[in-house]
Amino acid sequence: MRKLTEETLRDNEHFLQTITDSTPSFLYIYDLHEQRNSWVKPTHRQIFGSIFYKDGSSLDFQDIINRIHPDDRELLLGSIPFLRNNPDGTVYSIEFRMIDSDGKVHWFEDKISVFERNENGEITKIIGAGLDITARKRAEIAEQESKAQLLSVLNNSPLQIWAFDGEKYIF
Known about the structure:
Elements: H1 2-22, E1 26-31, E2 36-40, H2 44-52, H3 61-67, H4 73-77, H5 79-84, E3 92-99, E4 105-117, E5 123-132, H6 134-156
């Protein structure tokens, strides 16, 4: 029985390690009392190194808060009250911006859930998985700007311009 349990444990560890290694996400477990990551995916520094570590910062709690875009801080800080008031297994999803030491903005999508509670039911650790979505957000912003320019030209043209998509007039 012990051999079967050890083998099952090894298989589970291998399974989890394979998932961790193959996902492009940054993964972490954050300790709310110590206000630091208690575990991060080993490639964390590769993902964030060129963005955040070059000035010697450690990405401790205060450094993270300081780097979050001011307009997004309340959204991120709202994750704990949200999780506190929902059952374990609930996922808090957020898109937010962080500003690197050169002043450039990077977009992230993060999914956060309760990892551990104490005997009083208080959240002690959260687990998160996130992606750098900067390229996607820049493309979305460029598309919105392009559409706005096109609509401005169409709305201010002295000519009547129509577009038909085969089923209906678009404008």
